[in-house]
Amino acid sequence: MARLITITSGKGGVGKTTTAINLGAALNGFGKEVIVLDANLTTPNVGLHLGAPIVPVSLNHVLLGKAKIGDAIYEHESGTKVVPSSLSVKELRRLNHGKLKEVGKKLRKMADFVIYDSAAGLGPEALAAFDAADELIIVTNPEIPAVTDALKTSKVLEELGKPVKGVVVTRVRGIKTEMPITNIRDMLELPILAVIPEEKNMQAALVMKNAIIHTHPRSKASRAYRKLAAKILGNNEYKEKYTFVEKIFGV
Ligand SMILES: Nc1ncnc2c1ncn2[C@@H]1O[C@H](COP(=O)(O)OP(=O)(O)OP(=O)(O)O)[C@@H](O)[C@H]1O
Ligand SMILES: [Mg+2]
Q: What is the pTM of this model?
């Protein structure tokens, strides 16, 4: 039976989809069956990131009762499975967000992990992805507006009684004007699960329609995502060795 994890954020554009697909790919790399579901129905991106932008059967068809969830699962060349959404303005009004939870129940039997890539904020589709989840991860950047919005999300999740596993701080550049990680942890009163550095090859991975952990497996961001996956699997001591060349010249 799968664990159902929703990746969410207060502010948009902080790195949720990137985190969902890389966490999924890293868990898959550790031998787990993973399904990443695009629960961001109004601005779907999972398909774009993993090269399935237009598919014959999408999550939208399933939520409209026109198809079965099994027919909307596609296997990426890396082995990670995805359920893409396809935005159609015509369908938008008719979508039944509540059905996301029902879909989760079915997917639970098909994998070890189901990862919901949610919409930002607290709109109906984000709330539906909260409701469907066993546990949630909040993604933020190390900037005051993003962390303030993350705090709002965490308060709502607390009120809903939904367990938040912790926070992923991403696009960290290590510059003076960023919020320090300790301040983010203290403000959100949540464990920091991972710190993902700003990665120069992220756009290249996007163009290659693959997760950075596959396109640039030795990058620091890839290492950080594998460490996050290990933590999700209960291994807090996971460490990777750097080669001599990597130590001298960096990765
Ligand atoms: N660690 C990183 N280094 C560099 N660029 C990154 C990193 N993480 C994400 N990005 C880039 O930031 C942009 C936004 O990322 P992403 O689409 O994952 O955000 P999101 O939170 O899912 O956005 P939305 O709220 O619109 O769904 C993308 O162009 C992505 O490639
Ligand atoms: Mg996204």
A: 0.96
